[in-house]
Amino acid sequence: MEATIEVAGLRKRFGAAQALDGMTFTVRPGQVTGFVGPNGAGKSTTMRVVLGLDRADSGHALISGTPYRGLRNPLSHVGALLDASALQPGRTARNHLLWLAHSQGLGGRRADEVLRQVGLEEVARRRAGGFSLGMRQRLGIAAALLGDPPVLMLDEPFNGLDPEGIVWIRGFLRSLAREGRAVLVSSHLMSELQDTADHLVVVGRGRVVADTAVADLLATAAAGRVTLRTSARADAMTVLARAGATVAATDRDVLTVSGLPAERIVASLSEHAVPFSEVSAHRASLEEAYMELTRDAVEFRSEDPR
Ligand SMILES: Nc1ncnc2c1ncn2[C@@H]1O[C@H](COP(=O)(O)OP(=O)(O)OP(=O)(O)O)[C@@H](O)[C@H]1O
Questions:
Q1: What total of structural domains would you count in the chain?
Q2: Secondary structure letter of residue 51 according to DSSP
Q3: 36 and 166, same domain (yes or no)
Q4: Is the pTM above the cut of 0.80?
Q5: Distance between start and end Cα atoms, the chain
Q6: Structural domain of residue 168, as residue ranges?
Q7: What is the pLDDT of residues 1-25, one digit of tens each?
Q8: Which of 24, 53, 206, 254 is deepest in the core (most CB within 10 A)?
Q9: Which family does it belong to (predicted)?
Q10: Which of the listed residues 161, 182, 213 is the one where a domain comes to its end?
Q11: Ligand 1 site: residues with CB under 6 angstroms?
């Protein structure tokens, strides 16, 4: 059976709040899938339902074709990081993992292996209560990896990390996916998933707003746009607008031009002796693509029920 997470038609209400409203998507192996949406969109609730910690009112959630409760030795099928602070502060990192391993019938050797994998071997015998948030996140990921599961689910693993920690998690998630695992990572910041996610499931108000390959999303967002670097921004804007282009100022000396092919941009600027140092196909950022994707869903973007 292929390593997957399948969520279909999940609905879940907490009092007046419809936390999940038909949530449906599939997470495939060999990819990092970003699970993105504003606070309260239903990401954590979905993960809790997948792990059998919350019961959905309707719909179903399967891990590699089986409901969580039907899995034998669940840690060897799915690893999860839901809350990095969920540990006994008095226990050492290693004892925390040994305790988890033994509770699941796994050997102690795995504790040392995963500590090494996440770069915590030097602090393995220090009490986890004194760990920084970044170290706790690493320990949480180590715990998720104990059973060497083909499916991983991490809720906001970037939260509170310094830039070095973010770079580490990005590389680590990519390597886990390269090993063929299905990796689902939630975030409320699209920018965190840049250079990490291969696929995106964008959610709002308990349902999927977009389910797309990152490459397709970026290509659509970049379509037909050209980046122009010039020290004469005002002149360039005037000349290109006259030539029929739509021009937006991106940075102090950078313009994003649409509606005019690169060769016509070069010709117009040269004709009017406007200096420029770069004309290139625009590379959209994930953040930019996300804004484009949700542009028409203003209601969704401005939503913050808390
Ligand atoms: N145990 C609960 N009791 C009551 N309401 C809840 C509970 N858990 C979640 N909710 C509500 O369900 C909705 C979805 O919350 P959820 O935490 O799943 O969103 P999220 O996308 O994970 O947000 P965040 O990024 O803030 O974690 C919110 O309106 C939230 O207030």
A1: 2
A2: T
A3: yes
A4: yes
A5: 40
A6: 5-213
A7: 789 999 999 999 999 999 999 999 9
A8: 206
A9: Belongs to the ABC transporter superfamily.
A10: 213
A11: 14, 17, 19, 37, 39-45, 188, 305
